[in-house]
């Protein structure tokens, strides 16, 4: 798939683009949703999932931790109230709608990163296992919100840097499959590459418990 964005992000985000292309969202929404369905993104980022959902006549709902990103997402949405500025780790405390489909790319972590990705890298972390457990807890609550036929997709890459490889995609697949039934993966080959050390990522598919 072409790793292409229709617009470059405004400053100060332009050098920090972690978004996937709208084409990826369109492909999954065409396959797994119908007009009117509720599409959820717990790590909304720059709002790709939510804005494509609206463009395709789906309802959008999401959470983003970073206030500046929230303001940007809201400026892109027809229904800015669809985005909660908040913390996915507190998902169980929010009044959220039932979910027909969820697609996200979580904040990534190398095994030895010192910061906590689930605090948007703004706080010291408690290690890789705590990060995976944090994601598990978030998906435990997402599972409770999923409608019977809902599908959850997590887009993630393994990470390579000079010190070695963190098999993040496989570790997240294993962690979340303890919470939600794993239905397999879609491998996406990116041109040009994302720069995480690989030219492809995995879209991990799960269903309701
Ligand atoms: C990889 S980005 C998602 C990019 C998105 N798929 C897109 O295309 O724009 C992950 C996002 O998760 C946010 N984030 C990190 N911790 C969070 C948390 N606890 N709750 C909600 N959002 C969080 C980060 O600020 C970041 O914007």
Automatic annotation (TrEMBL):
Domain of life assignment: Bacteria
Presence of the UniProt keyword Transmembrane helix in the record: no
EC code: 2.1.1.-
Record-linked InterPro entries: DNA_methylase_N4/N6, RM_Methyltransferase, SAM-dependent_MTases_sf
Entry keyword set: Methyltransferase, Transferase
Biological processes, Gene Ontology terms: methylation
Domain DNA methylase N-4/N-6: 18-73
Pfam family, any one: N6_N4_Mtase
GO molecular function ontology, one term from the record: DNA binding
Enzyme class name: transferase
Membrane-spanning residues: none
Similarity comment: family membership: Belongs to the N(4)/N(6)-methyltransferase family.
Name listed for the protein in its UniProt record: Methyltransferase
Species, as recorded: Reticulibacter mediterranei
């Amino acid at each position: 798939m072409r790793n292409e964005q229709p617009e470059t992000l405004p400053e100060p985000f332009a050098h920090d683009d972690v978004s996937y292309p709208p084409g990826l969202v369109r492909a999954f929404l065409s396959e797994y949703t119908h007009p009117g369905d509720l599409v959820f993104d717990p790590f909304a980022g720059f709002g790709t999932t939510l804005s494509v959902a609206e463009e395709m006549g789906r309802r959008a709902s999401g959470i983003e931790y970073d206030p500046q990103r929230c303001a940007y997402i809201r400026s892109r949405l027809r229904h800015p109230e669809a985005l909660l500025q908040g913390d996915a780790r507190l998902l169980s405390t929010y009044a959220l709608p039932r979910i027909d489909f969820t697609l996200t790319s979580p904040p990534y972590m190398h095994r030895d990163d010192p910061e906590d990705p689930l605090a948007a890298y703004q706080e010291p972390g408690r290690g890789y296992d705590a990060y995976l457990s944090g994601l598990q807890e978030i998906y435990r609550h997402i599972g409770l919100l999923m409608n019977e036929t809902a599908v959850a997709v997590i887009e993630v890459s393994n990470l390579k840097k000079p010190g070695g490889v963190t098999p993040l995609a496989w570790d997240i697949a294993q962690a979340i499959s303890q919470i939600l039934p794993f239905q397999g993966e879609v491998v996406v080959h990116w041109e040009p590459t994302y720069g995480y050390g690989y030219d492809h990522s995995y879209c991990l598919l799960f269903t309701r418990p």
